[in-house]
């Protein structure tokens, strides 16, 4: 790849127009560091195009001059995928100004949005049309739909509605040669050859820049029941999930677990967070059950199943939110775990998945391994147990020093990933690869899978200008 010359910089500025670029160090700073402060890059220029055509013009200029391009959404990703390299040779393309909702069609249950729309704004727009857009995650106030689709984000409602990938009908993408792939079709049936959009969903910006998407909408729930349950352990959580799914006609929308250490961490570091129970328990589940009917039947069904679970010893105590505020307070206990971890010092994170039936075994084995390696380590295990996706995080002992603790990261993470993969799982469930997990991808993906990925990358981006160095290198 080439370096940026003053001549190319001028061409790029002209392509985006006034207000579409940032050159000063202070203005560029937020685009050059990731959410977790693990990755730091440099660039001569941050571009903020306001139209899809401007994105195409930028890419055509970069393709002709062999300049690397790093797409960036809300910059909330966990794997360093949105950060340029350290030598300053790549440009950052922020999609933030491409933030129009182009169309909502309530009868077709679809909306067409631009890539830079913030996820929470999309949820609100759907609600205003009396519909639901169900993608929901802790970063929804700042992540963008383009970033969500590029990472195939998961979140808390996957067990009912699927991953981001499942919520897309059509995609508009600018390819690495500057051509526009216009696939903004709002069709639920379209078997006309390869489903090309799937290539770009989850590709983390390595095959092109997503500029717009047609998203699926769903009926808006009229009754939402939020439950916080105390459980004897993760095994009981899996049984309770099955019991609730059977007993509420498949209305479970979210089923999250957190261990005792999570609740303690949140209480220590987040203002106003408090334990809903007077006694301490091993494990907690935050459950949401929702239905489009509003006759109270959903709550009744949930109460019946909970009573059975309490009798069976699967649940030890439970509270049901009596108001929207109480529901928000319970969700806050779950959603603020990442923030509490940040404040608690050094943290080693894992985003693994295993078959739901193996979650308890994974937590047991991984806990034993971490406690064997690091005395007094705090096991912060939480997440989307309904999808078999656990954020098995380790926070430094309060008496330790962050740097000494983080020195364990590489060895211990490999061991934790080995446990997940050994149980038929994945070392990266929903956060993607970026640069952080590239070595693990090389370790775990089969030679055939890696070869095919490199061939796809090479076929679509032979010059390797789209987010170079992320996920996979091209094979031509
Ligand atoms: C508090 C918190 C909670 C989170 N919870 C979850 C969770 O529950 N589930 C989950 O899956 N993730 C979660 N995440 C991770 C993160 O929010 C998601 O990965 C999110 O989808 C990233 O969106 P973004 O707009 O911030 O993308 P960015 O971080 O800006 O970019 C992510 C990747 O996508 C690429 N990209 C961005 N926009 C485009 C585009 N328009 N076209 C092509 N490529 C693009 C970037 O180059 C990069 O490789 C969480 C993060 C935080 C901070």
In brief:
This protein is of the alpha+beta class and 476 residues long.
Q: Which cofactors or ions or other ligands sit in this model?
A: flavin-adenine dinucleotide
Ends distance:
16 Å
Would you identify the regions where 5 or more consecutive residues have pLDDT less than 50?
A: none
Number of helices: 17
Strand content: 15-25%
Q: What is the C-alpha radius of gyration, as a whole number of Å?
A: 23 Å
- Largest β sheet strand count, sense and barrel closure: 8 strands, antiparallel
Structural class: alpha+beta
Total count of strands: 19
Helix content: 25-40%
Mean of all residue-level pLDDT scores: 96
Instruction: Tell me the overall shape.
Output: globular
Provide an overview of this structure:
There is one protein chain. The chain is of the alpha+beta class. The protein has 17 helices and 19 strands. A hairpin with a 4-residue loop joins strand 18 and strand 19. Helix 1 packs antiparallel against helix 3. The longest helix is centred in the middle third of the chain and has 16 residues. The radius of gyration is 23 Å and the shape is globular. The protein starts with 5 loop residues before the first helix and ends in a 16-residue tail after the last helix. It binds flavin-adenine dinucleotide. The site of flavin-adenine dinucleotide has 37 residues, from strand 3, helix 5 and strand 10.
Write the layout of secondary structure elements.
Elements: H1 6-16, E1 21-22, H2 25-28, E2 46-47, H3 52-65, E3 69-72, E4 91-94, E5 101-105, E6 110-114, H4 119-128, E7 131-132, H5 145-150, H6 158-161, E8 168-174, E9 180-183, H7 197-200, E10 209-216, E11 218-219, E12 223-231, H8 234-247, E13 252-259, H9 260-269, E14 283-291, H10 297-312, E15 317-320, H11 324-335, H12 337-343, E16 347-348, E17 351-353, H13 359-373, E18 378-384, E19 389-395, H14 402-406, H15 409-422, H16 438-444, H17 447-460
Parallel strand pairs: 2-4, 3-4
Antiparallel strand pairs: 1-2, 5-6, 6-10, 7-11, 8-9, 8-10, 12-14, 12-15, 13-14, 13-18, 16-19, 17-19, 18-19
Flavin-adenine dinucleotide is lined by residues 35, 70-78, 81-82, 95, 115, 137-139, 143-144, 146-148, 150-151, 153-155, 204-205, 209-210, 338, 430-431, 434, 467, 470.
């Amino acid at each position: 790849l080439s370096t940026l010359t003053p001549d190319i910089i001028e061409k790029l500025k002209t392509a985006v127009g006034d207000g579409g670029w940032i050159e000063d160090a202070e203005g560029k700073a937020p685009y050059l560091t990731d959410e977790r402060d693990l990755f730091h890059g440099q660039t001569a220029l941050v571009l903020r195009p306001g139209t899809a055509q401007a994105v195409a013009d930028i890419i055509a200029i970069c393709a002709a001059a062999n300049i690397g391009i790093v797409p960036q959404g809300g910059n909330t990703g966990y794997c360093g995928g949105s950060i340029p390299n350290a030598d300053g040779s790549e440009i950052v393309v922020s999609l933030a100004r491409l933030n129009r909702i182009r169309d909502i069609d309530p009868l077709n249950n679809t909306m067409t949005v631009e890539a830079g729309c913030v996820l929470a704004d999309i949820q609100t727009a759907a609600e205003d049309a009396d519909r639901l857009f169900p993608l929901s995650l802790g970063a929804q106030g700042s992540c963008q739909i383009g970033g969500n689709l590029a990472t195939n984000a998961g979140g808390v409602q996957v067990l009912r509605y699927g991953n981001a990938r499942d919520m897309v009908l059509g995609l508009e993408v600018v390819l690495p040669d500057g051509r526009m792939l216009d696939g903004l079709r709002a069709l639920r049936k379209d078997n006309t050859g390869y489903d090309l959009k799937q290539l770009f969903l989850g590709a983390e910006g390595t095959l092109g820049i997503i500029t717009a998407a047609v998203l699926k909408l769903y009926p808006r729930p009229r009754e939402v029941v939020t439950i916080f349950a105390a459980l004897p352990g993760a095994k009981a959580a899996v049984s309770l999930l099955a019991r609730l799914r059977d007993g509420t006609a498949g209305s479970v929308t979210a089923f999250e677990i957190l261990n005792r250490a999570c609740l303690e961490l949140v209480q220590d570091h987040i203002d106003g967070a408090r334990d809903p129970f007077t006694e301490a328990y091993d494990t907690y589940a935050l459950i949401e059950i929702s239905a489009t009917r509003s006759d109270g039947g959903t709550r009744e069904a949930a109460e019946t199943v909970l009573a059975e679970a309490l009798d069976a010893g699967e649940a030890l105590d439970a509270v049901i939110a009596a108001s929207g505020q109480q529901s928000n307070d319970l969700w806050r206990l779950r959603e603020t775990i990442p923030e509490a971890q940040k404040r608690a010092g050094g943290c080693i994170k894992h985003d693994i998945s295993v078959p739901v039936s193996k979650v308890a075994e994974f937590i047991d084995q991984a806990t034993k391994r971490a406690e064997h390696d690091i005395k007094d380590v705090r096991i912060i295990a939480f997440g989307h147990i309904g999808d078999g996706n656990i954020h098995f995080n380790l926070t430094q002992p309060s008496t330790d020093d962050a740097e000494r603790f983080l020195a364990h990261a590489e060895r211990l993470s490999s061991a934790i990933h080995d446990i997940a993969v050994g149980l038929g799982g994945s070392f990266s469930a929903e956060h993607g690869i970026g640069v952080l997990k590239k070595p693990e991808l090389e370790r775990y993906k089969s030679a055939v899978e890696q070869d095919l990925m490199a061939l796809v990358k090479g076929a679509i981006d032979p010059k390797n200008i789209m987010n170079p160095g992320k996920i996979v290198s091209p094979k031509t």
